[in-house]
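Slide 14.
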Amino acid sequence: MFALRQLHSQFVVKVPEPITSFEGKTIIITGGNTGLGFEAAKYYLKLKASRVILACRSLEKADKAKLELEQSFPISGHIVETWQVDLSSYASVIQFYEKARSLPRLDVLLLNAGIMTKEYRVAEDNESTITVNVISTFLMAFLLMSKLKETASFFGTTPHLTVVSSDLMIYSHL
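Slide 15: predicted structure.
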């Protein structure tokens, strides 16, 4: 049954492309250097987002993604930034929050970063996938909720907080 639903959703259902303008808006995407996060960054730039922040563990990989985005969307007015955050470290998440709360606005927080490992590893006294995919993801959400609310109140907008969750990445060959 799963396979039939998957085939139907991929080949029959046509999801309309978004047309809402994100002009003037600031977007943070964790794991924005690859996969769904990178594709989301493309869409936000296509929809005229003013500032897209790729929040990634590896600044080297993030900078490579930033360059590709800037080459694909050479329109002036877009700012693509790379900020480091390691979700296996609560201190890194808190440090990221300290930097992000100084932003003039935060309209979208897309929490996409995640890991899947075959080895048992410990991070912050928990199994690493729990730390990264659950605890740190929601720590970041809770910390930045106040910034999203502040933006909504000051600019009269509706902020967006999205948590990406899927096990289908095991079928991808990115």
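Speaker note: DSSP finds five helices and seven strands in the chain.
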